[in-house]
Amino acid sequence: MTSFAIIGHLALTDGDFSLNDLPGAGRMDVLCRCVNASFFLSHDLRRDVDCYLVLLGKSKAPRTLLFRGNEMRSLSPDERSAGALIKKGLSIPCGSEFREAAPGVYVRNTGLDRLFAEHTFAVLDENGTDIRTVTTMPDAFLLSDHQNFSDDEESLIKNASQYSVGPVCLHADHTITVISNEIDRRKNGWK
To answer: Of the candidates 179, 185, 147, 153, which has an alpha carbon nearest to the alpha carbon of residue 166?
Structure first.
């Protein structure tokens, strides 16, 4: 099982946004692309992936959404589809434990500190160690959206292993694709 967690620094947390303006919802478009990159193959979904979105925008922050590939039923490969599932998840009342919003989609009122207590994340950062030189691949990865990690986040992740996917900075969704490709290559004996 591989897990990706993406921090949405400005992403709205109340579900009150238009699917016609995902960028205006605190760059929800970036997070939708990350969800899609985590799961989609040509004509199939990755069933062995979990994707967490840690939303830190206005009103009900922090909130965490969990997408589970092995339970997913209604995700299509467009941003609006992912956005609709996010919106649905944010519209239901929840507490500190995950509550199911749709098949394979869960939400709770917690943030990054709770995720770090539950998982050992490797941080994806352009200054990290080249992922292709790593002998054992991590199984959980943390990324930031279009913004850098905040000072509070930096203090939380300071002891985490840090990896890079290459010599230039990529968008978060592209980074997920590269990581997934590297995992696929290793599982199938490619060098």
So the answer is: 179
Flag whether pLDDT at 2 surpasses 90: yes
Q: Residues 75-121: pLDDT tens digits?
A: 999 999 999 999 999 999 999 999 999 999 999 999 999 999 999 99
Of the candidates 40, 54, 6, the one whose C-alpha atom is nearest the C-alpha of residue 180 is: 40
Q: What is the CATH number of the domain that holds 87?
A: 3.40.1280.10
DSSP string, 83-120: HHHHHHHHHS---SS-EEEETTEEEES--HHHHHHH--
Cβ atoms 104, 67 nearer than 8 A? yes
Identity at 56, one-letter amino acid code: L
In the predicted model, is pLDDT for residue 58 greater than 80?
Answer: no
Query: Pairing relation of β-strands 49-55 and 2-8?
Result: parallel
Q: Quote the number of domains for the chain.
A: 1
What is the pTM (predicted TM-score) of this model? 0.95
Give the domain extent around 144: 1-191
In the numeric block, which tokens belong to residue 70? 């092995």
Q: Which token pair is 182?
A: 């590297």
Tokens of 143: 């990324």
Q: Compute the C-alpha angle 15/21/24, nearest 5°.
A: 75
